[in-house]
Design a protein that fits this description.
The protein is of the alpha/beta class. It has one domain (about 1-275): Glycoside hydrolase/deacetylase (TIM Barrel, Alpha-Beta Barrel). It has 11 helices and 11 strands. It has helices at about 25-40, 55-60, 60-70, 85, 90-115, 135-140, 195-200, 200-215, 240-245, 250-260, 265-275, and strands at about 1-10, 50, 70-75, 120, 145, 165-170, 175, 180-185, 185-190, 220-225, 265. The strands form 3 sheets. Strands 1, 2, 3, 10 and 11 form a 5-stranded parallel beta sheet that branches. A 4-stranded mixed beta sheet has the order 4-5-7-6, with helices on both faces. The protein has a two-stranded antiparallel ribbon with strand order 8-9. A hairpin with a 5-residue loop joins strand 6 and strand 7 (about 175). The longest helix has 22 residues, at about 90-115.
Amino acid sequence: MFHHLTFDLESGTDPYGVSGDTSGDGKATSAAVGRILDLLAAHNTKATFFVVGTLAAKHPQLVRGIAEADHEIACHGWKHELLYHSSANHPLPVTHYLLQDLDRARKLLQDLSCQPVSGFRAPSWSIGPQNLFLLDMLKELGFTYDSSLFPAWTWLYGSNAFSRKTRKLQNGLLEFPPSVMKLGPLRLPFSGGIYMRVLPWGVIRAGISQFRRMGEPLLFYFHTWEFGQPDQSLQCCFPYGFVRNAGLRRTPGRVNRLLSSLHFETLASGIVKSSHCS
């Protein structure tokens, strides 16, 4: 079975979308992307990159380089800002604004990559029970799949009501959730972010085994800034500093371990195989 490895290409200076800062350090971001592409090439593996529009506009060579290596480009919004803040209560002007921004980001990424951009992931998983109407906006804009619904409740995002399985939504979008393991009545994220960096490998392995027994493909997620240096400016801001910086040195090794033990394909490649889901 093929699984999915994804990377969010965003600024490490504002990973929670609080300020909307997506410019970041172009040199550091470029170096991180280079390390990721080298890892993928060493294992002859293709991945999906969710790219923030403003970062792509400022550093178009990064998008071109990823696409030229035959990886999939998908959309991570125009800015890295939380959608459940900007879309609160479904005000019409904000909805129109989001439509314009998402359309602008998708068209820019298509122009830079010379490939169709069919997938979307909300910054910081910020589509939740309170703004599910945004999924209809994605369908209207021409996206064919989404990867925004985090199937576990956390202090910042997610809901235990969301399915852990890849499935087709009522509006026709295919939903690819990140992999979350079930422990009795509890749900434990393990497939990316702070969870992948700090949990013992035995826990990660248990999550992988659970999905294999289910016959479900796994979806792992990483961020380009996780291949860089800690952001010292966040050290005094708990829990942001801890979530941003803890375990960064483990990231390359854990990605390499996954690449050595599992087979991966892009999310776009998985659409055909998952088209029967409902």
